[in-house]
Specification:
Number of helices: 11
Number of domains: 2
CATH topology of the largest domain: Carbamate kinase
Length: 306
């Protein structure tokens, strides 16, 4: 007979055996995470926040709780974010047409003001506000922080060099800015903008910014949230999902990937080539995918290794 207990005054019963079984599973999960807790304790991890998690409030709350959890188990999370969907919506609302050149959004002087307002005033604020805890908070690092320095980026279309306006690539990272926030016991929330040589604000691809920051701070791992399960070696064959891939294998595969996957895998490749031990793309549509990637044997995406 199943052991049950009645809750006084409520007329409800609780299955003690079932509760104990669930508790044992939870305990086993905690013990399973021990090797990774030991490996990553005191280390820094960079997480690029994007995809569905950026526009789904429930996923954002789940992500924020994961970041707080990492902090309390002794891992230093650093968040980098972009804001493509929000930028497009804000530009449309302002009557500014989104023009793409060679796959990049052309960013005029008028548009960069909107981009900065969205990234720092909307996306960054939402993230820092989601990290709600008595002892740790999210601290925004935007254009005024001087974290990223950069130069204007161009692209090639049919052999012709094309101007992209206020679009940049990072040339220098002042890692001390991040270490200051971490030393204060807080979580850095980094906006993917850089300061140009004349003090102008430059819009930087968030995946590339995350890779550059990961190398600069000597992080143990880079993780990029995406809207796919991971990297497929033979897309759309669902059976070709890779749990891991080496740098050499990825370099061969990279030219044949879907255009949307190339910047993410390029960022992983650049991070590992730059000395980061591991980089991974993770399905951000699943709650707590970051914790699954870090603390379980199977992970939750595709990991790039040397």
């Amino acid at each position: 007979m199943t052991e049950q207990i009645e809750q006084s005054g409520l007329g409800q019963t609780r299955d003690i055996k079932a509760d104990r079984k669930v508790a044992r599973v939870k305990a086993a999960t905690l013990i399973e995470s021990l090797p990774w807790l030991k490996e990553f304790h005191g280390k820094t991890m960079v997480i690029k926040f994007g995809g569905n998690a950026m526009v789904d409030e429930e996923l954002m709350r789940s992500f924020a709780s994961d970041m707080t959890y990492l902090h309390y188990v002794g891992i230093n999370p650093v968040i980098v974010h972009g804001g493509g969907p929000q930028i497009t919506a804000a530009l449309n609302a302002a009557g500014i047409e989104s023009e793409f050149r060679g796959g990049y959004r052309y960013t005029s002087t008028e548009a960069i003001r909107v981009v900065q307002d969205v990234l720092e005033g909307e996306v960054q604020s939402s993230l820092t506000n989601a990290i709600v805890d008595d002892q740790v908070r999210g601290v925004g690092l935007g254009a005024e922080s001087g974290l990223f320095s950069g130069v204007r980026k161009t692209t090639q279309v049919n052999g012709e060099e094309i101007d992209l306006g206020h679009v940049g690539e990072i040339t220098r990272v002042d890692a001390a800015k991040v270490f200051e926030v971490l030393a204060a016991g807080n979580i850095p929330v980094v906006t993917s903008v850089a300061t140009g040589p004349e003090g102008e604000t430059l819009n930087v691809n968030a995946d590339a910014a995350a890779a550059a920051l990961t190398v600069a701070v000597g992080a143990a791992k880079l993780m990029l949230l995406t809207d796919v399960e991971g990297l497929y070696s033979d897309w759309p064959n669902r059976d070709s999902l890779l749990s891991s891939i080496t740098v050499a294998e990825l370099e061969k595969l990279l030219p044949n990937l879907e255009s949307g996957m190339i910047p993410k895998m390029r960022a992983c490749l650049d991070a590992v080539v730059g000395g980061v031990p591991k980089a991974a793309i993770i399905d951000g549509r699943a709650e707590h995918s970051i914790l699954l990637e870090i603390f379980t044997p199977g992970g939750s995406g595709t990991e790039v290794i040397p």
